[in-house]
Amino acid sequence: VQLVESGGGLAQPGGSLRLSCAASGFTFSNYGMTWVRQAPGKGLEWVSIIDTSGRTVYADSVKGRFTISRDNANNTLSLQMNSLKPEDTALYYCARDGTTSWSWDYWGQGTQVTVSS
Q1: Residues 62-92 pLDDT 10s
Q2: Rounded to 5 degrees, what angle do the CA atoms 96, 83, 108 make?
Q3: Three-state DSSP class for 2?
Q4: By CB neighbour count within 10 A (0-12 exposed, 13-18 middle, 19+ buried), where does 27 fall?
């Protein structure tokens, strides 16, 4: 199993970034996927979840600004981030959902998002 994130970088407040996660080594369409972030000096925070049917859930902190999506044909998970705020600054990970609720069994290496003027 391999998860490789990309698309992070520096954005201004109010700007946008699109993160991608390339998945390999498993049947991507069979698993729910999650974006999780960790801000400097803070714990892990789940950001958004998409299940195998495409249903989505968002943390209140990003609702209305972020959009999670998946492309099962290309084994790719995405996170479109709009109206970025400085508090969105974090290392963003994609993770494969585990066998129990709110658990993740494989993680990518993370991509850094920094929101600053």
Answers
A1: 999 999 999 999 999 999 999 999 999 999 9
A2: 20
A3: strand
A4: exposed
What pLDDT digit, counting tens, does each position of 29-69 carry? 999 999 999 999 999 999 999 999 999 999 999 999 999 99
The residue whose two tokens read 């991507």 is 28
**Phi (first) and psi of residue 14, to 5 degrees:** 90, -10
**Ramachandran region, residue 37 (left: φ > 0; alpha: ψ -120 to 50; beta: rest):** beta
Angle at 28 between CA 23 and CA 33, to 5 degrees: 80
Q: Return d(Cα 92, Cα 4) in angstroms, integer.
A: 11
What φ, ψ does residue 104 adopt, rounded to 5°? -135, 135
Q: DSSP labels for 41-101? A: TS-EEEEEEE-TT--EEE-TTTTTTEEEEEETTTTEEEEEE-S--GGG-EEEEEEEE-SST
